[in-house]
Amino acid sequence: MNNNDEFQKELQRVLNTESLQDVLNYMEKNIVSFFSTPNIAQYYHMVKEIDISTSSRMMTILIKAWLAFLSGDNAGFTSTIKYINEAELKGCYESSFYYALKALAEFSTDPMEKLKYAKLSVDILPKGDKGLFMANAKLTYGQILSGLNQYRHAAEMFDDSFQIFKSLDIFFLAVIAFVNKSLNKYKLGEVSYVIDECNKILVMSASFKEKIEEYWNIIHLPLGMCYYDLNKPNLAVHHLKLAKSSIDKMSLLHMHGIIELYLFKAYFILNDEASMEEILKQSEVDFGEMHYTMTDLLISMFRIMSCREENRKAIQSDIERFEVEYMKVGEKSPFILLETLGYLKLKGYSNLITIDDILESLKKLRFIGLVSYIQMFLILLSEIHFIENKEKEAELCLKEAVSIYKEYGISVNFYIFPMKSVELLKAIDNKLYKMLEKNHISNEFTCKDSLLSPREKEVMQHIALGKSNDEISKTLFVSVGTIKWHINNIFGKLEVKNRVQAIEKAKILGEIS
């Protein structure tokens, strides 16, 4: 039954008028209709009260368990799954459906255990099977592989799943599989491929139905992410907003977070403070009460990146949140945490992350193949080396970052950080250098009114008063290392070698009174 409204009406009629046995028969007969639209939560609430405690029909119990799991009803899922007896599963299809659920749901927190069941859900089916259960098994297997950073293998599973769902005209799940495939290809740096494939599918979608279903717009998510990486922020915003509109309307909660992150960063590149503030406020409403580590970090990141220098005190608790979280998990920290700590280090707000930390992260990134993040961390490393007067090391990092730009077209990471090593790009890629210079990637160097940032002026004023690094750090409530960092930046900007020269030059330029 392809029409969603018809299915919903007929399901309600069966629930109202038929016997329990007839209801169970109807559920099994129409299994595809339950999962072929975004209305899964609605269908689940319709069948939620069905008593399956005395049923020996494992497929019906599995359908209800899947609906509960996908609707986020953990209590309902737990109370349903206890009635599934693995020994009573009949045939490979029921077993595959059960193993896929076991892989995704929290039967076990061991990732290898999850991987085992996900693979088993595929392997137990006949080789070459092109039905619903194989498509579901491969979709599940792809999700587990992706969670383990095996992006290429995951993309293959998602593509197989997409092809099967499409051949069965189960377009909602086909879109979900395609988007997951595209996201994994994106992580591998295959930006041009993803853009071409997404645009092909969006053109093709118009031929499936007279009225294009809302869920096709989810395809704009990987498309927007790719345009962001290519430093096309206006184009990225256009596609990401289309995706967000559909994700919001369909309440696809598992896709939130990533869409807000890329929208915010696109606005950051555009220096659109009003839109950044809008994303921040909406995220505080949507995620503020969740108290999940990742959503809390996301909101803190937005506050940090949208904060002006003069309002720094307002984000001190957010900075401390990142520092505490990093001290807890160290090198196992999510990359969003490491990226933000790197940004804070270059701004002179935190000195926690070290060169060794970044090198360790780069090693991990190279192993799993997150191309855009590899480039980002190379640029971050280059900046730190440059500030520490290690120009050769900085140049080596920039050369590798530029090679990624040349191979994949990814350039946005040159615009995220306040770059001081930009001059080194002249000898590496003069065209890229001119492009970055034209776009004023470092506000500190392109500011016409003042050479020093407000914080650097504050430090310079204390230097002029004859205070030591220790005295300045206590006055400004920051570490001695941070003060040294600021002084190093001040000397570089003023082109001086000591404090006496700095004071004289700063007075001449009007940077201090």
TrEMBL record:
Keywords: DNA-binding, Transcription, Transcription regulation. The keyword Transcription regulation applies. It comes from the Bacteria. The keyword Transferase does not apply. Residues 445-510 form the HTH luxR-type domain. InterPro entries: Tscrpt_reg_LuxR_C (IPR000792). PROSITE patterns: HTH_LUXR_1, HTH_LUXR_2. This is LuxR C-terminal-related transcriptional regulator. It comes from Clostridium mobile.
